[in-house]
Structures are given as C-alpha cells and as structure tokens.
Specification:
Cyt_P450_sf, alpha+beta, about 30% helix, iron, about 100 residues, heme, two-stranded antiparallel ribbon, flat, monooxygenase
Length: about 100
C-alpha cells in the first residue's frame, strides 16, 4: 500500500514542519478575519450539516484514514467592510 507524507516521518522528518503548520494557521485565521462568507441558498447550503447526529446547522466531518467532508457550499465570499483590509495589506507590503 502506498501513502504520502508531505513532511516525512521519524527521525529524519522535515525541520520546517512546525513553521509550515504555523504559516498555514495564520493564513487561515487572516482569511476568516478579513472576509465574510455565508452558506449557499436553498438545499445546497445545508449539505454537510449534522442532521443525522442531531446537530442541524453544524458542519460535520467524518473520520476515515485522514478526514473527509461534504460541503459547505458558499453563497458569497467578500471582504468585510468593518476591517481595513487594504490598509493592513499596504502597511505589511511597505514593511511598517
């Protein structure tokens, strides 16, 4: 059976693994902070809800070898008005 391990495992694993996970977490957190998003309209927006587990409105994943899911489907994804996204990006690119 073949498998894929991006950072390798054991004593010779990647020394940058922790840094890569940290950077990924920061990108995800900033995306959630700077953007508003919402579920798609109609039945497509309910795909992946935990209705069978008694948790409507809650998105669920299923445990397999790693993880799998169905949904969520987004109806909109746009920058927040209340957050100064462009000013923050400009200040970071100028090194201030």
């Amino acid at each position: 059976m073949e498998s894929f391990s991006a950072f390798s495992i054991g004593p010779r694993n990647c020394v940058g693994k922790s840094l890569a996970y940290l950077e990924t977490s920061i990108v995800l957190a900033k995306t959630l902070w700077y953007f508003d998003f919402g579920a798609a309209a109609g039945s497509l927006g309910a795909v992946g809800e935990g209705r069978d587990r008694g948790r409507p409105g809650e998105f669920c994943t299923w445990d397999v070898f790693n993880s799998t899911h169905d949904g969520p489907y987004l109806g909109f994804f746009r920058p927040r008005d209340s957050v100064l996204l462009y000013e923050d990006l400009r200040s970071h690119s100028m090194g201030t």
